[in-house]
Amino acid sequence: MKLHHTKRDREFTRGAMGGRRSAMMLLASGIAISLLAGCSSSASEERVVIQKPDKEINVITPEKKPVEEAVEVDRIDKFEGVRGMDWLTESEIIISRENKERPPITVEGEKRYPLNLFAYDLNTGKERLLVADENNKHANFAVLSPSKAYMFYKMNIEESAYAYILNLKTGEKKQVSEELVPIRDGVWDGDDTVVFAGIPGQVFAAHPDRNTEKLLSDAGRAMNPVMSQGVLYYTDMLTLKAYQPKSGKTSTISAKVENVMPSPDGNQLAIVKMTGDTERTLVITDLKGNVKKTLSTGTQIFGVSWSPDGTKLAYNLIDEAENGVKGIVVANASTGKTTFATIDVPYASDPVAWSPSGKKLVASTFINDDKGNRVVTYVIKLK
Question: pTM value?
Answer without folding.
Answer: 0.82
